[in-house]
Design brief:
heterodimer, A: alpha+beta, Uridine Diphospho-n-acetylenolpyruvylglucosamine Reductase, domain 3, Vanillyl-alcohol Oxidase, Chain A, domain 3, 3 domains, five-stranded antiparallel β-sheet, 18 strands, elongated, B: alpha+beta, four-stranded mixed β-sheet, 16 strands, D-lactate dehydrogenase (NAD+) activity (chain A), transit peptide (chain A), EC 1.1.2.4 (chain A)
Chain lengths: 575, 557
């Protein structure tokens, strides 16, 4: 009752009430105690306040202090918290003026010729890719470091001026990983950092810079007569840094696993804060905590720049190449499944599926001496000592026959084996060569092996129904396959893009992944939440934010935006 | 303009706010402090009466000056308050270690948490505070660091149970310590000093789906280990030389309850994927500090015929050299285990073995191949190579029974090691180095142990450069000597480009070596990730991550 009265008074005559109460002096003992006006005794603004002047000042100040702190806190959270919530704080990147200053500083830091390149053609070539049709922008500058400390300097300049960094080396990306950022970006061309630093034959490992090509590494080992090799074999021209960034694999994955296995013993990375870390030492295994090496594998340069790597090597083992034709993909895949689960499985180094269109393309491209039968075909690479190869070949032959294969033949000579394998490795080139005047959209998905026939069957049907020409090659032992989809002009591009979209959804629905080995880049971002779930993607974002709070490392790649992206326009490089 | 622009560029919006905010505040808060001091100094001389009368004078002269005084005071106190508050905030965020006590709830909170757990899981055996239960979960026979009691043991039956438990733990800020096989050697499952919920997942042991049959899971750590524990320590075993470790591709995906209570499945079931960095790998070796793994899809490998051979060498250096050459042949080696002369003596003494072994450094080899013919071929190649390196007494099992017997002698390492010294306890520890450095490490370690008079056996997964020492001790004094010897051994391994633990994990026992091994930057990266995922620090606190002030000279906890 009393409370309501005093409140009423304050509400009805707020100003006069305040005036009356905002008196700092205490009217001392003159106030009659007999009529206490309720709670006002406790209000330091009130005349009836019981405490001393000091108490009065203290209480009033405390009240205002709390008010100010609360207000400041509210303003702070309102103005700034929303900014951290934004997926891509685009606003904070450098203006064109800032970019210019950054380039000046880069030139001053790296005075040697060609280290800092702003030639318009170069920027365009580096920003766009011949291999993909995703939205892209030219870079602002291309910088060519030669050592880890160069990279640190570049990362520091990027942070100082707030310019995104995109690492680049082999440029074999198919999903737009190396494209420029619209507001300007530094393209870090790592391909000059290609030195092999150390070969430890007894430990079967090798230390190299991240710009080294896997083919060059294997060639060097062969030249030096070291009977070891590095078994990850993605597209020709790929470099170690890019292979880590995408979490690559290749035809050997069925026997040796992918980049996510234990082929990278450690790596040296420059973090977004400019710090250089070496993720671990050179022991083949370690249980010392979760392995931060793995964090960079598949991170597509969004968590740091890998500069040096220790690779594990494996012995070179004699191989033999064989080929078998099947009535359809389903028979081929079931044969592979059976072979891999027998004790002979470990002797299969590769098993590749090429569909009838692909075989036809190889014939048409004229890369072989005599034409192959135009049927769904498996290429096997069998490894082991002569006894094992013999027994494995026998077992394979029996099994493929059981699954309806009409033919099984070995490459008669090493040269033929190599040619056969080359044809598989250069599937993209043969496909293009067989269809002059067309362009090619390459994509890959991966599903549990048993689901592969269904996926291939439905995809081929879908493509045929849409009137799209394509070839299919698959690392069938892993359930991974690539579709090379051909088109002639922009009018066909949309149809191709839609077909790829359907293909990815089909794979994800079959408990598979939107990309088996090409990575996410900009091309597959939109499928990531579908595949991994919002929780896992958010975990990835949490890690990204923790390591790169300014979002300077390859922004726009890998992590899907939270909002549904609008229909994107497909910019293409002018041919 | 230029310099202004640079400043802008250096700090950026958010940073500028924080930094400049702090820069502005610091001088001002200093000002405020000095202002308070002056007032305090001056007030005794003025006396209370003076102040009162002056204020009274203000009152008579008009209300506006009292307003100004009031306003000034309140702004000042506001600034003081803000400065104090932000000062507090920054100090707590900078040194998380010192605020350890506020990090967790009070004993009263914990009591309430247990009560709430009981209400959430009314079935009698889901939540246990039975002293015997607490004791078995808090103390380990494998760990000679002092054990501690957990506050409560919780037995979930499903992922949802774990989620509900995590929510309660978060509410009361109670540490969560996952537990299952209890084979840890480095104190992973020890309770935290403030207590905590021990989550015993050993009941969640159903195999949910199998795709494919004449197959096996090749990771083979110690008997009794569970998948959750194997994943969390990043385990391996004798098969690692052929199949790799837990950090390879055997775990296709994991379902994890994050500290936020959210359940994620790290990926789908395809054998490979390049869809971003693999969050599965984040939990492998994280020792339960980033989340609790509740379901896992594991990849299987075909089961191959095997056989076993044993061979003696003049010393371990020769044996290692032979192994390196054998490994580089690419023949079918599934395991290659080195044991030292003391181990062979122990095996003879243990008396389980059917035979008397020559007491020399030896290799146990397990060959695999698709057919008996190919295994024989492998054996032939291996025999030739090892004999080139001075091996003697190459003995190949003639049948499966003999192979099992031979292998059992290696597998009994722990028991036979203990047989060497009556009434002794054993401290098992492991380190790993690049294979070529193994002889040096073993040689130095054996010399060291001989000098200090500690009996120990050495068995090594020599194909990986990994070895285990079982140090025997009978009393407190010998325990301390053994502990120092382990300390030196770890330093030796790290100096040889190796690791403080090849397969046992970090736990509390090895965390002081982590900075030396990985560098401060890498450890800080790990902590950054830990903080980002578990900001309250409730998941298995005190394990894995070295404290900021932890140096390796301080004795272990």
């Amino acid at each position: 009752m009393v409370l309501r009265l005093s409140l009423q008074r304050c509400l009805v005559h707020p100003v006069s009430a305040l005036r009356r109460h905002m008196i700092l002096t205490r009217p001392a003992s003159t106030t009659p105690h007999s009529t206490p006006p309720g709670l006002l005794r406790y209000s330091p603004w009130s005349k009836e306040f019981l405490g001393s002047l000091k108490t009065r000042i203290f209480l009033q100040s405390a009240f205002y202090a709390v008010g100010i702190v609360t207000a400041a806190g509210l303003v702070d959270s309102y103005l700034f918290a929303s900014r951290t919530e934004l997926e891509e704080p685009v606003l904070h990147y450098a203006s064109p003026q800032g970019t210019k200053l950054a380039i000046e500083e880069l030139r001053a830091t790296f005075p040697r010729a060609n280290a800092v390149d702003t030639d318009a053609d170069t920027l365009r070539t580096y920003g766009f890719s011949e291999n993909s049709y995703h939205p892209a922008s030219p870079h602002s500058v291309v910088v060519r470091p030669t050592c880890t400390s160069d990279v640190v300097k570049i990362v520091n300049i990027s942070r100082k001026y707030r310019i995104p960094i995109t690492p680049y080396s082999g440029a074999t990306s198919l999903e737009g990983h190396t494209s420029g950022y619209p507001s300007g970006s530094i393209c870090l061309d790592m391909s000059g950092m290609d030195q092999i630093l150390q070969i430890n034959e007894a430990d079967s490992d090798l230390v190299c810079q991240s710009g080294a090509r896997w083919e060059d590494i294997n060639a060097t080992l062969k030249e030096k007569g070291i009977p070891l090799f590095f078994p990850l074999d993605p597209g020709p021209g790929a470099t170690i840094g890019g292979m880590i960034g995408t979490g690559c694999s290749g035809t050997n994955a069925v026997r040796y696993g992918t980049a996510r296995a234990e082929w990278f013993l450690n790596l040296t990375a420059v973090l977004p804060n400019g710090e250089v870390i070496k993720t671990r030492r050179r022991a083949r295994k370690s249980a010392a905590g979760f392995d931060t090496t793995k964090l960079f594998i598949g991170a597509e340069g969004t968590l740091g720049i890998v500069t040096e790597v220790t690779l594990r090597l494996t012995p070179v083992i004699p191989t033999k190449v064989a080929m078998a034709q099947f009535p359809d993909v389903e028979h081929a895949v079931s044969a592979v499944q059976e072979i891999l689960n027998t004790p002979y499985g470990p002797h299969i180094q590769c098993v590749e599926l090429l569909d009838d269109h692909m075989m036809e393309a190889i014939n048409t491209a004229g890369l072989v001496d005599h034409p192959y039968p135009v049927e769904d075909t498996l290429f096997f690479k069998i490894q082991g000592d002569p006894t094992s190869i013999k027994s494995t070949s026998k077992a394979v032959q029996d099994i493929v026959k059981k699954h309806g294969s009409s033919r099984f033949e070995f490459a008669s000579t090493d040269q033929e084996a190599e040619d056969l394998w080359q044809n598989r490795k250069y599937a993209l080139m043969s496909t293009m060569a067989a269809n002059p005047g067309t362009r090619c959209w390459t994509t890959d998905v991966c599903v549990p092996v048993s689901r592969l026939p269904q996926l291939v069957f439905e995809t081929k049907k879908d493509l045929a129904d849409s009137g799209i020409q394509s070839t299919i090659v698959g690392h069938v032992g892993d359930g991974n396959f690539h579709a090379l989809i051909l088109f002639r002009d922009d009018s066909e591009l949309q149809g191709v893009s839609d077909a790829v979209h359907r293909l990815v959804h089909r794979a994800v629905a079959l408990e598979g992944t939107c990309t088996g080995e090409h990575g996410v880049g900009v091309g597959k971002k939109e499928y990531l939440t579908d595949e991994l779930g919002e929780g896992t993607v958010e975990l990835m974002r949490v890690i990204k934010r923790a390591i790169d709070p300014l979002n300077l490392m390859n922004p726009g790649k890998l992590y899907p935006e939270r909002r549904k992206p609008k229909a994107e326009e497909f910019n293409r490089p002018s041919a | 303009m230029n310099s202004l622009f640079k400043a802008w560029g250096q700090h950026g919006h958010r940073q500028i706010y924080l930094h400049s905010g702090r820069h502005l505040l610091t001088p001002r808060s200093l000002l405020v402090h000095s202002g308070i001091a002056r007032r305090l100094h001056s007030s005794p001389s003025l006396g209370e009466h003076d102040v009162q009368s002056r204020a009274g004078a203000n009152n008579t002269s008009g209300i506006s000056s009292s307003h100004i005084l009031l306003l000034a005071t309140s702004i000042l106190s506001g600034i003081v308050g803000f400065a104090v508050a932000s000062g507090l905030e920054s100090s707590t965020s900078v040194k998380g270690g010192s605020s350890q006590d506020q990090q967790f709830g009070t004993p009263g909170d914990f009591k309430q948490a247990i009560e709430e757990l009981r209400q959430a899981f009314p079935s009698s055996d889901a939540v246990s505070t039975d002293p015997e239960d607490l004791r078995t979960h808090g103390f380990s026979d494998y760990d000679y660091r002092p054990g501690r009691l957990h506050s409560v043991v919780f037995y979930p039956a499903s992922t949802e149970d774990v989620v509900r438990m995590v929510k309660i733990a978060t509410k009361y800020k109670m540490p969560v310590i996952p537990y299952s096989g209890a084979t840890s050697l480095e104190g992973h499952i020890r309770s935290h000093a403030v207590g905590g919920i021990c989550v015993d997942i050993s009941g969640m042991d159903r195999i949910l789906e199998i795709h494919g049959i004449p197959l096996f899971f090749p990771l083979d750590p110690a008997p009794g280990a569970t998948i959750g524990g194997m994943l969390s320590t990043g385990c391996s075993g004798t098969n690692a030389v052929r199949y790799g470790t837990a950090k390879a591709e055997w775990f296709l995906n994991a379902t994890v309850v994050l500290p936020s209570g959210e359940v994620i499945k790290t990926r789908r079931r395809s054998r490979k994927s390049s869809a971003g960095f693999d969050t599965t790998k984040l939990f492998i070796g994280a020792e339960g500090t980033l989340g609790i793994v509740t379901e896992v899809t594991i990849r299987l490998a075909p089961l191959l015929p095997t056989t076993v051979a044993v061979v003696q060498f003049p010393d371990l250096r020769k044996a290692t050299e032979a192994v390196i050459e054998v490994m580089n042949q690419g023949v079918g080696i599934q395991c290659v285990e080195a044991v030292d002369d003391v181990f062979m003596a122990a095996t003879n003494k243990f008396g389980m073995s059917a035979r008397k072994w020559p007491e020399k450094d030896s290799l146990f080899l397990k060959f695999q191949g698709p057919t008996q013919a190919s295994i024989q071929e492998t054996a032939k190649i291996v025999k030739k190579i090892v004999e080139k390196h001075g091996a003697t007494g190459f003995e190949l099992a003639r049948n499966a029974k003999e192979a099992d017997d031979l292998w059992a002698d290696r597998k009994n390492a722990n028991y036979s090691g203990m047989a060497l010294l009556e009434g002794a306890k054993g401290w098992g520890t492991d380190v790993c180095v690049p294979v070529s450095k193994l002889p040096e490490l073993v040689y130095e370690t054996k010399k060291d142990l001989a000098q200090i008079g500690i009996t120990s056996t050495i068995v090594g997964h020599v194909g990986d450069g990994n070895f285990h020492a079982l140090l025997l001790f009978r009393n407190e004094k010998e325990y301390r000597i053994a502990k120092e010897a382990v300390h030196r051994m770890v330093h030796r391994a790290i100096a040889l480009d190796g690791t403080c633990t090849g397969e046992h994990g970090v736990g509390v026992g090895k965390k002081k070596y982590l900075v030396e091994e990985l560098g401060a930057g890498t450890v800080e990266l790990m902590k950054t990730i830990k903080r980002a995922i578990d900001p309250l620090g409730l998941f298995n606190p005190g394990k894995l991550y070295p404290d900021d002030d932890e140096t390796d000279n301080k004795p272990g906890v």
